[in-house]
Amino acid sequence: MRRGNGVHSWTVFSATSPYAKRVGRGARPAMKKQPAVERRSSTEKLTILVVSPVEEDHLSLQAIIGHPTHSTWMLFNARDPVSAFALLKQYDIDVVICEQELVPGTWIDVLTHLKALPNAPSLIVTSRLADWHLWAKALNLGAWDVLAKPFDRAELIRSVQSAAQHWHDQIHIHPTVKMMSAAS
Which residues contact 40 (CB under 8 A, 6 or more apart)? Predict the structure, then answer.
């Protein structure tokens, strides 16, 4: 089944689709081997900044991220953008998880500040009322992801890991590629 809105599209194959019957359940078409890409090691330190005025957010993220399986993940907490900006000056942050509504300001203020940094961390926006409008706006402005609250552990971990990998890839990209990207 193919779905899309003209901007993004994806393909979904069910076990009963003609494609699945032709190549067999679970089989994948032959693909060219992609060049090796440096990936983050699971033992590398990952620094995460949580920006939220909501105490429950900090506690639930600490419970998920502070789990022993993520012992190399460091979590910093800020209640407002001003204290977040101070932490960003002090520490190398890989991923920022930011509540949609802050006092004062919004996640857009945080994103604007992050974009001005030389190695801008990836931003994940959170909201109790995460909807398509917020998702579209956040991604169009440059955020990495939008997560609904209460947090789903698996979704949060997946999002943080992919945001960290994106940040890592961006800072380790060859300077020639950066110049070519900026020119286009």
Answer: 46, 164, 165, 168
